[in-house]
Amino acid sequence: MKPDDVIARSIATKQSTIKQFITSLWSHFFPDKTLTVGELLHYAHTRGWIEDQDERFCNDPLNRQTAARIIHQFMKIELGVPDLQDISAANLLADLYTCHTCVNHIAQVYLRGIMDAQRVEWDGKEYKIFNHLEEVSEEEAILILKHVSAISCSSSG
C-alpha cells in the first residue's frame, strides 16, 4: 500500500472502536438478548471472549490483532465453533509470530477467510502479512461479521 493510499483510506473511513465491534458482534448474533454496553462488556469479560484491556479501553480504536482474538474467542465460546487443528498453512504470513500469544487467534480467522492477509513488497519480494496493529475500519468490521456469520452457519448445519 502506498502512503497516499493510507492517507486516503484513513480520511475516507471511520475507524471502529473495540466497544462498537463487541456491541455489533453481540447484536448481530443475539439480537433478542439486549444488554447495556456495560452489561455486555462485563458478560463478555466473564465468559472469556474479551480481556481486561478490552473492557477498560473499550473506546480505543480496534486493531486487527484484537479483532482476531475477540472473534476467535467469541466463535469458540458463544458459537461453539471448534478450532481448526492444523494451522500450518498460516505460516505464509510473514508476521504471524509477531505476537506469540496471538498466533492461534490470527491463524484461525485467517485460515477460515474471516480476515484477509495484506500484500507488501520488501526488497523486491512480495510477502503476505496480517498487519496486527492496523486499525480496523467500520467497513472491514462489517465484512468480518459477514464472514463469521457464514462460518457459524456452515459449522452448525
Which characteristics define this entry?
157 residues, mainly alpha, two-stranded antiparallel sheet, 7 helices
Write the topology of this structure.
Elements: H1 3-12, H2 18-29, H3 37-47, H4 52-56, H5 64-77, H6 103-111, E1 118-122, E2 125-129, H7 138-156
Antiparallel strand pairs: 1-2
Helix pairs in contact: 2-5, 5-6
Distance between the termini: 39 Å
Assign a percent range to the helix content: 40-55%
Shape: globular
Residue-averaged pLDDT: 90
**Major beta-sheet overview:** 2 strands, antiparallel
- Percentage beta strand: 5-15%
Taking all Cα atoms into account, the compactness measure Rg is: 16 Å
**Parts with pLDDT < 50 across at least 5 consecutive residues:** 1-11
Number of strands: 2
- Order of adjacent strands in the largest pleated sheet: 1-2
Give the number of helices.
7
Any idea how many domains? 1
Helix and strand element order: HHHHHHEEH
Structural class label: mainly alpha
Task: Describe the protein in words.
This protein is mainly α and 157 residues long. The chain has one domain (3-156). It is 51% helix and 6% strand. It has 7 helices and 2 strands. It has helices at residues 3-12, 18-29, 37-47, 52-56, 64-77, 103-111, 138-156; strands spanning 118-122, 125-129. It has a two-stranded antiparallel ribbon with strand order 1-2. Strand 1 and strand 2 (125-129) form a beta hairpin. Helix 2 packs parallel to helix 5 (64-77) and helix 5 crosses helix 6. Residues 1-11 have low confidence and may be disordered.
